[in-house]
Design goal:
Number of domains: 1
Largest sheet: 7 strands, parallel
CATH class: Alpha Beta
CATH topology: Rossmann fold
Structural class: alpha/beta
Length: 188
């Protein structure tokens, strides 16, 4: 299984973010999993890629050429895909991945996982996705999404399709038994 991990190119202010990123990789290293991520060695992106390589996992990075120096390309990983821009990065990561996890990050992480949510909603793919809600990091986003349902902009089935947990074992096992919802037009 190829799992995309979306996360920050920064570490965040709390050491726990880095520690939990390592725990996730350690757990996934016991499964038959390859990591797909943004290609950087900065921040949490570097933490997950370096930890995965230490544990002899296959790691595929997807990075826009113009960010290779700014995000500091991790050239020690298994495979690097150079793309033109962020749009191509997201498309390539979605193509390569069987499942998606967003761990803490900023705008880029939010944009990437939001696009995956949208793809599920409109039926572009049937791949599972998860919010790793460590320390309640995504609580406000979850509240927003619940309000989207309440206000009639998102169907409950599409919110329920997002795996939300702070337990990587639960997330991984949910990936294995995931059943995609019907797209938004089939539910109308």
């Amino acid at each position: 299984m190829n799992i995309a991990i979306y996360c920050g190119s920064s570490f965040g202010d709390e050491k726990i973010y880095q520690e939990k990123a390592k725990e996730i990789i350690k757990y996934l290293s016991t499964k038959n999993v390859a990591i797909i991520y943004g290609g950087s060695k900065s921040g949490l992106m570097g933490t997950i890629s370096n930890e995965a390589m230490k544990l002899n996992m296959e790691v595929h990075g997807v990075i826009p050429k113009h960010l290779a120096n700014k995000e500091i390309l991790n050239d020690t990983i298994s495979n690097i895909y150079y793309v033109k821009d962020i749009r191509e990065r997201k498309a390539k990561m979605e193509e390569l991945s069987d499942a998606f996890i967003a761990i803490p990050g900023g705008y880029g992480t939010l944009e990437e996982i939001s696009e995956v949510f949208t793809s599920i909603q409109i039926g572009s793919h049937n791949k599972p996705c998860a919010l790793y809600n460590q320390n309640g990091y995504y609580d406000k986003l979850i509240q927003f999404l619940e309000n989207c349902v309440k206000e009639g902009f998102v169907k409950q089935e599409h919110l329920d399709a997002i795996i939300i947990s702070d337990d990587i074992n639960h997330i991984y096992n949910s990936f294995l038994k995931y059943k995609a919802p019907k797209n938004k037009w089939e539910l109308s």
